[in-house]
Each structure stands twice: as C-alpha cells, then as structure tokens.
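User: Could you check the structure of this?
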Amino acid sequence: MSTDSDAGGGEMEKINVRVPQSLLAKVDEVWEERGYANKSEFIRDALRDAVNPPTQLSEEALEHLAESRKQREQGEVVSQAEVKDRLGIDD
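Assistant: Sure, the predicted structure tokens are below.
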C-alpha cells in the first residue's frame, strides 16, 4: 500500500480498480477537457460525488430554468442596464 498526502483530505491510500476498457477510454477523453490536472484527480472527484451527491434542484426550479431558457431562445430577454433603468437604479 502506498500513501500520498492530499491538501484537503490528509493521507491518501492507493487502490486498484478494474474498469471496462470502454469506460476507461471515455475517462481518458474527458478528464483533461474538464480541467483536471490528472486522471486520479478526476476519479477522486467522481468518488466524492458518489459519496456526497450534489444537491438536486427541485421540480419547480427546473421548470423555472426551462422557462428562462425558452424566453432566452425567443429573444425575450433584457440587459442588466435595461432592468436598472426600469427599476430606477443608479450605479
């Protein structure tokens, strides 16, 4: 067993994991594109998400996002400056 230190989590232990070649190929395609320094960092992040899943948005929030997306696609948007002007807000 080899250990390394991790700035945020203390001692780290090396493990061996078997994965299908097709999955590993996909990991090899995306880890760098997503801004990870290396494949291990990518896999550690995936394990963290599995243990502590990210917060899920409510159905209501998802509906609001879908409506906002539709409004944007239809050009029904206003700039920040226009909102400030409508509300009488000065910088």
